[in-house]
UniProtKB/TrEMBL annotation:
<dbReference type="InterPro" id="IPR036388">
    <property type="entry name" value="WH-like_DNA-bd_sf"/>
</dbReference>
<dbReference type="GO" id="GO:0003677">
    <property type="term" value="F:DNA binding"/>
</dbReference>
<feature type="compositionally biased region" description="Basic and acidic residues">
    <location>
        <begin position="119"/>
        <end position="136"/>
    </location>
</feature>
<feature type="region of interest" description="Disordered">
    <location>
        <begin position="104"/>
        <end position="147"/>
    </location>
</feature>
<dbReference type="InterPro" id="IPR036390">
    <property type="entry name" value="WH_DNA-bd_sf"/>
</dbReference>
<protein>
    <submittedName>
        <fullName>ArsR family transcriptional regulator</fullName>
    </submittedName>
</protein>
<dbReference type="GO" id="GO:0003700">
    <property type="term" value="F:DNA-binding transcription factor activity"/>
</dbReference>
<dbReference type="InterPro" id="IPR051011">
    <property type="entry name" value="Metal_resp_trans_reg"/>
</dbReference>
<dbReference type="InterPro" id="IPR011991">
    <property type="entry name" value="ArsR-like_HTH"/>
</dbReference>
<keyword id="KW-0238">DNA-binding</keyword>
<feature type="domain" description="HTH arsR-type">
    <location>
        <begin position="4"/>
        <end position="98"/>
    </location>
</feature>
<dbReference type="InterPro" id="IPR001845">
    <property type="entry name" value="HTH_ArsR_DNA-bd_dom"/>
</dbReference>
<keyword id="KW-0805">Transcription regulation</keyword>
<keyword id="KW-0804">Transcription</keyword>
<dbReference type="Pfam" id="PF01022">
    <property type="entry name" value="HTH_5"/>
</dbReference>
Length: 147
């Protein structure tokens, strides 16, 4: 499938918009530690259920999270381990502007940040059983289990 420039730009805008909110960044960090239900995120963030659901919808539309129904509950999990490289790069950009930030949890921090080494940091995620993409044939994580 060939994407034109407009659709590529729209996808990039959607991705960056999904990360442009403190609550969504907090949700991403929490999901980095393992799958969560909306009720879990609500309790941990102190936000209303409708607010958390809206943030999850934005992250889902950007392809960053996916729901996993388990009985009567639905757990949400991150789908893109590449996100941590993006977060680490954002830290570098902010640091260059004199704004130190910790967006990427230490355990998800890419070992190599140079473009030549990109792509090698996801091996740990692949070995842990985390599904990087829903269309890849690999086992998904179980509810409450870390990625």
């Amino acid at each position: 499938m060939t994407m034109n420039r407009t659709s590529v730009d729209a996808a990039a805008v959607q991705l960056f918009h999904s990360l442009a909110d403190p609550a969504r960044l907090a949700i991403v960090r929490l999901l980095g530690d393992g799958e969560r239900r909306v009720v879990d995120l609500t309790a941990e963030l102190g936000l209303a259920q409708s607010t958390v659901s809206g943030h999850l919808s934005s992250l889902r539309n950007a392809g960053l999270v996916e729901p996993h129904p388990h009985g009567r509950s639905t757990f949400y999990a991150l789908t893109r381990p590449e996100l941590w490289r993006l977060m680490a790069a954002a830290e570098d950009v902010l640091a260059a502007d004199g704004v130190p930030a910790r967006l990427c949890p230490e355990r998800h921090r890419p070992e190599a940040t140079s473009p030549a080494d990109a792509g090698h940091g996801d091996a740990a995620h692949a070995e842990s059983g985390h599904r990087a993409r829903p269309d890849v044939d690999a086992p998904a994580t179980r509810p409450g289990r870390p990625h």
